[in-house]
Structures are given as C-alpha cells and as structure tokens.
Amino acid sequence: MQFETSCFANRVRGIDPFSGSPADAIERFLSSAAVLMKRAVFEPLMSGYNFMRFSAMNEIVIEAHDAAAMALGRQALFSYTRHIIDDDDCYAEDALNYLTNRRQPAVERLSFLELLLCAAEPRFGPRLAPVAATISDMLQAQSLRLIYRNGRFDPSDGPAVEQAVHDPFWDLIVDARWDNVRTDMQQALALRDNGGPNPALYAARALESTVKIISGQKGWLTGRERGAANVIDTLVSARNGRFIEPWEAEMLKRFFADVRNPDAHGAGAAPQPQLTPVQTSWAIEFCMISIKSLLQRL
After folding, report:
1. Which pTM does this prediction carry?
2. For residues 187-194, average pLDDT
C-alpha cells in the first residue's frame, strides 16, 4: 500500500468539515462505520486455520495504521493488544475501538477509516463496492456534508449540486485519458476546501486539458496553437463541423481571459488578483459543467 499524505485530515486542514451538520452526527456515523467494517470487511477475512485466522485483517489494520500515522505526523494512533500466543492477536478490535473513541479527533479517525478501506481494496476488489455504497448512504443518513467517492472522503456542496454537477462529471472522466483532468479538478476542490491558493487555476487547467484532448482526438490540432483560445477555435470551426457553437466558444474564451489568466501570470507591482470564496466555487462549477457538456458530445 502506498503511504497517502493527502488523507482526509490534511485535505481539510484549516476548516471544520462537520460544520452545518447535526451535533454528534460524525460520532453516529463512525459508530455505524465500525459495525460495517466488522461485518463486511474484517469477518470475511477470518481464516479457517487457527495459526493464521487473523493474519489478513491484521495486515490491513497495520497498513492503514502506519499510513495514517505517517500522514498525520503521529508516532502511533493506538496500541495493539498482544496475547501470550501470537496466533490469538487480533488487531481488528483495536482498530474498531479507535474509530469509536470520542477522545480522539474525529478528522483523524475518519482519515484512518479512509485508509482502512484503501488497504482493504486490493483484497476485495469489486466486492468492496457495496461497502462504499453503504458508507455513502450512512453519510447521507446522518446529514453530514461529506461524500465518499473514489476511495476518499471530501466535503460536499450539498445533494442537489452533487447529483446535478459532481456525480455526472466524475462518471465521465473515469477513463485513463482524462487522468490530468481528474487530478487537477481534485486539486482544485482540495485547495478550495482547505483555503489553499488559486483553486480556480487548477479547475481551469482541467478545462484546458479537456479541450486539448478533444481537439487532439478529433485530429483538429495543427501544432500552431498558442493557448486555450486557439484550441477553442478548433472546436467552433465550421470546417470541423462546429463541435460547439460560437456563443459557447465565447464563454470559454472569456473565462480563460478574465478568470484564469490574471491568476496564471505574475501581477508585477500591482496587487495579486484574488477570487472570493463564492467566485472560486462558481469558477470550479463552471469548469465542471463545461467539461461535462463537452464530454457528453463525444
């Protein structure tokens, strides 16, 4: 398992990811998640051979614990219960007790749960999908403004935006050719959620990558394009069958000129331009909606 330094706690550093949620909602969720992990992940891994009955679940716990401790800068999150006979050592209970230990920061326990699921994925493969779906249902049941998608917890913009914008967007970019688009948009959301610099710039990079990939795939790139505007011209060209309409091309060009470019270039002696949080969210959603609209035409 690769150590993951961008665990949930680090991605939301500086903000309260549970604000706006009912009091105690995160504790109820973690209690439910502990039961789910016990029934759906740990128990199926128990071996019928006494000498190794807990080996697989112990490996998952150790992997997740070490990854979380390293990401959080901690020597250890909890201690393992040891027995006189090593074959009796079962670290699953230690992990479940940690998940429900209210004396520990909830963001760190959620980070451990995220990495626990990540460690389980190679052993379960597609069989882990129902567990992920149940995690999502439990988040919604507790009215937590969080989503679980692609193996990670992230703040949510609310069910309406998630269903209309985010879910279709992520579904459309699962193919490997959209890796750069997916990476940049994830970075844009992470920077937005933890107050990092220039999240809209990463969303704009995702949009620019999209128009370049589409134009290249269609065979419309000439190699003489000097920027996003020139690539957009290949999409709106009548000779290329007007993949997009002129008014759509104008909107995309204005976004790059007025929103992306001021952030992408040095301001010199002038004050560095900054978007407000509302403008930042708008810019990210504009890019998501534009990418979704472009990909639905392929």
Report:
1. 0.63
2. 83
